[in-house]
Amino acid sequence: METHIEKPDINKKDESFRDRISTVDEKGKRKWMYPKYQSGKFHTYRQIFGYTLLLILFITPFIKYDGEPLFLLDVVHRKFIIFGTVFYPQDFFYFGLLMITFVIFIALFTVVLGRLFCGWACPQTIFMELIYRKIEYLIEGDWKERMALDKQKMNFTKFWKKTLKHILFYAVAFVISNLFLSYLIGIDALKKIATDPLSEHIAGFTTLLAFSLAFYGVFAFLREQVCTNICPYGRMQGVLLGKDTLVIAYDYVRGEPRAKFKKNEDRKAAGKGDCINCHQCVNVCPTGIDIRNGTQLECINCALCIDACNYMMESVGLPKGLIRYATEYQIKENKPFKLTARAKGYIVVLIILLGIMGLLLMKRSPVDGTILRSYGFLTETTKDGKIKNLYTYKLLNKSNHPQKVSIEMIEPNDAKIELIGHLPVIEKEGYIEGSFFVVMDKSLTKGMKTPIEIGVFDENHKLIKKYKTNFLTF
Ligand code: SF4
Ligand code: SF4
Questions:
Q1: What range defines the domain where residue 467 resides?
Q2: Does residue 368 surpass a pLDDT of 90?
Q3: Is residue 269 part of a domain?
């Protein structure tokens, strides 16, 4: 277990948090979490932010740009659309660069702001805390009631509560799987699965069912285990967090030594810190950790412990912020928050990568493919003494419109292209192939192998792709 906030000099003996994760008991069995409901400033902000993200997530599949969805990750047909721009396997380079940029961004974000993404923007946390947990609170009550219900033997009340809860859990999972699929196959294909006879979409419907069962399993049973044991991003925290990282931290300088609250007591004079050992920060934690032990990999930065502690501090008349967003340096040395050299380095790399990405995307051609000299066919000399080479072309239209293109010589300009057949319009996402001759006067050649340039032009005669190849003279 990784601990970055230094272990406070405290008077407690329990060090078991170092031996195992919070959701596992001494025998290695999973401990079911019963987080207490907690309202507060951060909870409200997270709700506003989370529900706004959910709204965007649900609306996006319906938004179309140039007849295409705004986002599509169609792995089966190897077609990816990002902000309305279509990417094909030929664009793997862009995709790879995008992924590298994304990883650097995540690393930078985590180095500076810790696991902020997990608590505020991760779909797992948003669905779990803002939908599933709410359903649970509504049907089974707060933590003590839920614990009592689970301890009870099966009776009518328990039966209807559990049944209703799991029906709703599955219904939400079904909605999420539809949403998920809409990003994979597009909303139109999803509508077809929903409206056409079932027999026509057995595979689609089976996928939908499989996804919904998987989501149901994740949110009804796996829950925080995804964050503590499965998510690779969570595992990366140990190498990314440092003493300059902004994390949710307990101010042990102010809080220790912790002691129960006594009315009208001068805690400072009594040698007591501000932590009144009420355990509320632990009770509300969805991953069951005690943040007073320092930053732990289970912490998803949900900020519920801040709300809980602030509430307690207010109740006993002590200043808020005993648990807050802070760096280790801020707490230990009262140093202001600043960017480290590592974070600055990441920012520079990120800016360079974003610049390269932007340039490449601006220069990205709507037509891609190959123009190659035809192997096997050497050269042919025409009656008027000119030399001919045969070439093949394969062109793919990566834009959202049909493309009427022409193939013309660029270098040497005086050489001619003789198409075999005609060049058809390339339909949207379509593909054409064919052959043509390059015919050249001997005076234009440079030895046995002359480098030449052939261009593909759009209907406005704008060069959209340039190919370099060779012209043979033997
Ligand atoms: S320690 Fe606090 S911020 Fe971290 S998961 Fe628990 S309640 Fe959320
Ligand atoms: S909620 Fe605050 S006062 Fe209570 S135990 Fe946690 S840190 Fe201490």
A1: 367-472
A2: no
A3: no
Q: At 428, which amino acid appears?
A: K
Closest residue to atom 6 of ligand 2, CA basis:
281
Q: What is the mean pLDDT of the chain?
A: 90
Query: pTM here?
Result: 0.81
The arithmetic mean of pLDDT across residues 437-453, rounded, is 90
Question: Which ligand places an atom closest to the C-alpha of 300?
Answer: 1
Residue 57 CA to residue 60 CA, distance in Å, equals: 6
The pick from 285, 322, 324 for probing ligand 1's pocket by mutation, whose C-beta has the most ligand atoms within 8 angstroms, reads: 285
Q: State CA 333 to chain mean position distance.
A: 35
pLDDT level of residue 271 (50, 70, 90 thresholds) = very high
pLDDT at 154: 96
pLDDT of 314 over the 80 cut? yes
What's the CATH code of the domain at 396? 2.60.40.10
Residue 178 lies in a domain: no
User: What pLDDT, in 10s, does the model give residues 151-173?
Assistant: 999 999 999 999 999 999 999 99
23: its two tokens: 């959701």
Q: Which ligand is nearest to the CA of 278?
A: 2
How many whole angstroms separate alpha carbon 273 and alpha carbon 291? 16
- Answer whether 302 contacts ligand 1 (Cβ < 6 A): yes
Q: In whole angstroms, how far apart are CA 305 and each of 215, 224, 321, 401, 474?
A: 27, 16, 11, 53, 81
* Residues 188-203, mean pLDDT to the nearest whole number: 90
Task: Domain count for the chain, please give it.
Answer: 1
Q: Which ligand is nearest to the CA of 280?
A: 2
User: For ligand 2, which residues put their CB under 6 angstroms from it?
Assistant: 250, 255, 275-281, 292, 308-309, 312, 322-323
Asked if residue 393 belongs to a domain, the reply is yes
- Residue of the nearest CA to atom 1 in ligand 2? 309
- Does residue 147 belong to any structural domain of this protein? no
> 108 CB less than 6 Å from ligand 1?
no
Task: State both tokens at 21.
Answer: 């994760």
CB 251 within 8 A of CB 292: no
Atom of ligand 2 nearest to the CA of 292: 7
Output the CA 281–ligand 1 centroid distance in Å: 8
Query: 274 CA to middle of ligand 2, Å?
Result: 8
Note the pLDDT of residue 14.
66
The yes-or-no verdict on residue 398 having pLDDT over 70 is yes
